[in-house]
Amino acid sequence: QVQLVESGGGLVQAGGSLRLSCAASGRTPSSYNMGWFRQAPGKGREFVAGISWSGGSTYYADSVKGRFTMSRDNARNTVYLQMNSLEREDTAVYYCAAHRSYFEAVNPYANAYDYWGQGTQVTVSS
Q1: What gap in Å lies between CA 84 and CA 7, rounded to an integer?
Q2: 3-state per-residue secondary structure call for the chain
């Protein structure tokens, strides 16, 4: 079992920045590939970014590429999502997710992930 707790969400003006954190605990979280997903009101959950267990591979949705950066610190069992140049369309609840993997390839599909955090709200105002 892996437990995930997100933090860092809040209200920010368009063009601003936020950094989300996801602290993992439990069974060897450093051997898990991690992902960030988001869900806006009335919409389905969508993939935002993912990172392999080693941190060697990352993958981003086209909508955030060049603006968001995902990283991880396995010594701290924490992953981060640095969000710059935020837009109103980025408003959503952001979820951290994990799935065990020995491979570097990042999976963008929600049903591949076994563990989820409770989510953190990000609101971007104009």
Answers
A1: 16
A2: CEEEEEECCEEEECCCCEEEEEEEEECCHHHEEEEEEEECCCCCEEEEEEECCCCCCEEECCCCCCCEEEEEECCCCEEEEEECCCCHHHCEEEEEEEEECCCCCCCCCHHHCCEECCCEEEEEEC
Do the beta carbons of residue 77 and residue 29 sit within 8 Å? yes
- Given a contact cutoff of 8 angstroms between Cβ atoms, the answer to whether 116 and 95 are in contact is yes
**Which pLDDT score is estimated for 77?**
92
Other residues' Cβ atoms within 10 Å of the Cβ of residue 42: 5
The C-alpha atoms of residue 104 and residue 36 are separated, in whole angstroms, by 16
Q: What is the DSSP letter of 105?
A: P
Which candidate, 67, 122, 63, 126, places its Cα nearest to that of 93?
Answer: 122
50-90 per-position pLDDT tens digit: 999 999 999 999 999 999 999 999 999 999 999 999 999 99
